[in-house]
Recover the amino acids of this structure.
């Protein structure tokens, strides 16, 4: 009897959302959005009531959501929003806008981190959650680490005094296979020509690595790019063991001397997206919107 009453209340809640919430693509909200809200409700019920919603109740509620009865009073849309894809010109505009911006970024380190994340996504087609801390795994501190990089020094037959620098980047946090160590993805990064140095991922990566002082034997860009003794065979730059588990892209923290970069905390996706959204607006890209927060505590949690 109690479950029957609760089921009726939740159905009424679904009906209210369907009739009251304004959709972006039509007069009625998307059915998929209501579906997400209902599953969020089930999760919150289990968390705060310490009791899972009974399976029979969940089935009845989901059946009502997709029923002709609800469609007759609230024709929820099934349209999807267009998702334009950025091309190489868009990426270059964003990168150059980040380097030139003088007011948005608190630290140059964050500027370089955002550039590196954008370039990795562009070169590898990998989602940002494989580089920064995913929104679906908040407070996990799971992100791309220095141990996921191998830095190779390759002899240059054309100019022995200027070796070729190559980085092999390994992506462990693949979608759907985050906990499966047998799934991974690797790709190469090399130096861009001097005319493209502003959008060179290798240059930005070396800047981040040298600032963190991750290498055992080299500590300046001259040690890598112009070694005193030109290499005669391919070798790998050794990374300090205690640095291998450190996230490459990390969060900003407030210190007594001002803003700085945390030595341990990975950058959350929502902060990365906020930087990207702001620069996109500054550079003239339209159609961007800001996320909505139900309470001030939700907003504070992001920082």
């Amino acid at each position: 009897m109690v479950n029957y009453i609760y089921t009726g209340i939740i159905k009424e809640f679904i009906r209210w959302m369907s009739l009251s919430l304004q959709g972006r693509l039509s007069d009625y909200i998307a059915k998929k959005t209501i579906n997400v809200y209902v599953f969020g409700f089930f999760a919150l019920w289990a968390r705060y009531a310490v009791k899972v919603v009974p399976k029979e109740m969940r089935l009845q509620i989901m059946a009502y959501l997709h029923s002709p009865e609800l469609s007759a009073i609230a024709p929820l849309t099934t349209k999807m929003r267009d998702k334009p894809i950025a091309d190489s010109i868009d990426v270059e505009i964003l990168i150059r806008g980040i380097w030139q911006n003088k007011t948005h970024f608190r630290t140059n380190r964050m500027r370089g981190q955002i550039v590196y994340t954008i370039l990795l996504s562009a070169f590898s087609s990998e989602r940002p959650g494989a580089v920064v801390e995913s929104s679906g795994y908040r407070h996990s501190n799971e992100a791309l680490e220095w141990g996921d990089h191998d830095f190779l020094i390759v002899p240059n037959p054309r100019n022995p005094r200027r070796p070729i620098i190559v980085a092999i980047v390994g992506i462990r946090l693949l979608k759907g296979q985050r906990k499966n160590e047998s799934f991974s993805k690797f790709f190469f990064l090399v130096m861009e020509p001097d005319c493209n140095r502003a959008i060179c991922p290798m240059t930005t990566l070396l800047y981040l690595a040298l600032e963190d002082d991750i290498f055992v034997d080299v500590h300046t860009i001259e040690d890598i790019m112009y070694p005193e003794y030109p290499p005669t065979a391919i070798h790998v730059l050794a990374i300090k063991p205690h640095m291998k588990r450190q996230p490459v892209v990390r969060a900003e923290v407030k210190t007594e001397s001002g803003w700085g970069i945390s030595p341990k905390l990975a950058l959350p996706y929502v902060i990365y997206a906020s930087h990207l959204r702001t620069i996109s607006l500054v550079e003239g890209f339209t159609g961007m919107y800001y996320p909505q927060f139900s309470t001030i505590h939700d907003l504070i949690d992001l920082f």
